Amino acid sequence: MKIRYPKTFLFIIIVAAAIAAFVLILPESTQPQSPGYALYTLKRGDITATVSATGTVNPLITVQVGSQVSGTIQDLYADFNTLVHKGDVIAQIDPALFKASLAEAQASLKSAQAAREKAAVEVEDTKRKLARVEGLRKQNLVAESEVDVARFEYEGAVAEHQLRSAAVEQAEAARNRQQVNLDYTTIYAPIDGVVISRDVDVGQTVAASLQAPTLFTIAHDLARMQIETDVDEAFIGMIDQGQEVTFTVFAYPDRKFKGNVAQVRLNPTVEAGVVKYNCIIHVDNEDLALKPGMTATVAIEVAHRDNVFKVPNAALRYIPDWPEERLQQIREGLKTNEAIVWQPGTRELKPIKVRMGIVADKETEVISDELQEGLKIAIPGNPVESERRRRFGLSLF
Predict the structure, then answer these.
(1) Which residues pair with 301 in a beta bridge?
(2) CA 20 to 30 Å from 355, out of 104, 270, 296, 381?
(3) Quick one: how far is CA 239 from the chain centroid?
(4) How far is the C-alpha of 162 from the C-alpha of 247, rounded, in Å?
C-alpha cells in the first residue's frame, strides 16, 4: 500500500532544501568580510626575559683518587655510594715488592754508613802520621818528601771520607724513596664525600708508569651541585654573576629547580663555528634529587619587570594589507628599539608607535603614552573565516 504525503509537507521539504543549498553555495563576496586579523586586549602584567641553554649537573668538588705506584689491588674498602671521610683507607696495593725494596735500601744505607766510619778512621790515622812526620822533619830526621807523602795520604783520606758521607746521604734518600713508595701502596680518601665511581677490582693490576691510574672518583658534597652550561656569544653580554636561574631535568619534568649564576668563565669554546662561553650555576640539592651527570634545561633570568604593558610578539610582526608606500611613511623615523602596533578604528587600523622594553620568548614589553589597559590590538589571525568554517563546515564539532 502506497503512503500519500500531503502537498504542504512536500512543499516544506523542498523549500528547506533550497535554503540549505543557497547557504552552502553562497558566493564568497556575499559572506561577511574578514578584517584579516584577530584582536588582543592590552593588559598589564609581569614579564621576564631569559636566556636558554643546556648543561650537565655535577658536584661542586670532584676528586679523582689515583695511585702513584704500580701493583696489584690487594683489598678494596670502598664501593659505589660509600660515604668516606678524609684519611680513611679505601684501597690497598700489594706491598710485598715495596717492602723488599725498602729492606734492600736499608741494607745499602748500613753499608754506606760503615764505609763512612772506616773512612773516618783512615782520616784520623793519616792525620796522626802527618803530625809525626812533620815533627821528625823539624828535627831533620826525615826528608821533605816523606812529609809530602804523609800530607797527600791525609788529604786523600779526607776526600774519601767526604765521598763516603755523600754515599750515605744518597743511600738515605734511596731508603726514604722506598719508604714513600711503600706508603703509597695504601690509598687514603683525600676528602670527605661519597664514592660515585670505582674503576678497579681486587686482583687488577694498575700501572702508574705514564700517569696515575684513577681508582675512585669522590664527590665532596652532593647537597651542593653545579651546572656547567655553554652560552652563545650573542647572549653572553646579558649574563652576570648572581642572576637567578630556573631549570628542569628529564627525571622530574614537572618540577622546576632554582639556582644562581656563580661564574662566567672567560675561556671560549668553538662548536661548529659558534663561539660559546662556559657558565657555572650553583644549585642547592638538599633532598639529593639531582644526580651527577643529569642533563639540565636552563633558563637564566636576565631581566624582569612588574606591572607593565605587554603584547604577544606576533602583534609587533603584524602588517596590514596597505600599499608599501603608505607603510613606509608610517615607519619613517623608527629607532631600533621601536615598533608599530595597530589599533582597530571605525574605518581602518590606527598605527601606534611604541618603544620595546624586555623581550621574552612569547611576549614583549611595550611603552607609549597612547597605551591604556583594555585597548584592542590587532594580531595576525582571521576570526570571521574561522567562525564561518565552524558554522558551515562539514564537521559538527
Answers:
(1) 50
(2) 381
(3) 15
(4) 71
